[in-house]
Amino acid sequence: MTDSHPGRVRVAALFDDLAPRYDQGPVPWFRPIAARLVDLLDPQPGDRALDVGAGRGAATFPLAEAVGATGRVVAVDLSPRMCDLLRTSVADAGAAQVEVVVGEARPGTLGASQFDVVAASLVLFFDPEPAATLSDWMRLLRPGGRIGLTTFGPVDDAWTAAERRVLAHAPADMLDVRTSGTRGVFGSPSAMAGLLEQCGAIEVGSHDEPLEVTLPDAGAWRAWTMTLGMRQIWESIPPPRREEVFVAAATELEGARGADGRLHLTQQVRYTVGRAP
Ligand SMILES: C[S@@+](CC[C@H](N)C(=O)[O-])C[C@H]1O[C@@H](n2cnc3c(N)ncnc32)[C@H](O)[C@@H]1O
Q: Which of 166, 173, 119 is nearest to 141 (CA)?
């Protein structure tokens, strides 16, 4: 069912590779972001919810809890391996209301006007055609249904400087939160709100909220980013230069060292929500 667009094929391959370690480490990241998104969407018992780009289930499980045994959650992801691992977690949790589907969330496959709630946490910036894809997600909502997206706003100065060292090596066409995901429609809350409105939503709001990550040192930062989409950027650096780039990034991260000796890094998380007319 995976679309043949080369951008999506690459994204599926990246997340197949990342899946086993994805969202399994000690850094609270995907889950607090997805939990906040689900709070904002406020699903009700009995609702039908869709989690697009479900990954290891950061939004799937809070959605399942909110809709309860009488509701339904469809979790869709391009990556077959993510879906396999999520299916196992769903079975372990006994969440019988959750169905996991490999592929894209399109009206042609899932059926139009099916869902009360659509959530897509940290997904849209990986898509090669975000406006067309988001318009399709809107078509999946019943009239009055709610949609919520998370993307990223800025990171603090030390993190920005460290990332700049790594991003200098990213191929120009790379679809990633740290490349395409900070420009154009992803560049501001008002642009994200405009995109969602353009795709047919009403009552749209978009705002940023800070999320702090605390890490012991730059080595822990690199290890963590290697479990994220950013791994593809590290791997695009020729191996002989990777250590040099890491040392430069580590020097920049010193600016984030707090009085407790740890690195304190802040990411602004962008929450954009709206409603189908
Ligand atoms: C950064 S992860 C986020 C996963 C999860 N939502 C979370 O917050 O932990 C992005 C996920 O979206 C999936 N993905 C990207 N574009 C997609 C698309 N157009 N349709 C379905 N899944 C997509 C990827 O395979 C990946 O598993």
A: 119
Domain borders along the chain are 6-154+173-210+267-275
61 close to ligand 1 (CB < 6 Angstrom): no
Architecture of the 6-154+173-210+267-275 domain: 3-Layer(aba) Sandwich (3.40)
The mean predicted confidence, pLDDT, of the chain is: 92
State the pTM of this model: 0.93
- Axis crossing angle, helix 239-253 with helix 157-167, rounded to the nearest 10: 170
Instruction: Please give the C-alpha separations between residue 22 and each of 165, 220, 226, 231, 255, in angstroms, as whole numbers.
Output: 24, 15, 9, 11, 27
C-alpha 46 to ligand 1 mean position (Å): 25
User: What is residue 145's DSSP assignment?
Assistant: E
**CA distance between the termini of the chain:** 29
- The pair phi, psi for residue 100, each rounded to 5°, is -110, 130
pLDDT digits 0-9 by tens, 153-173: 999 999 999 988 988 877 666
Residue reference for tokens 């780039």: 245
Give the CA-trace dihedral at 52, 53, 57, 59, to 10 degrees.
-50
Whether the CB of 57 sits within 6 Å of ligand 1: no
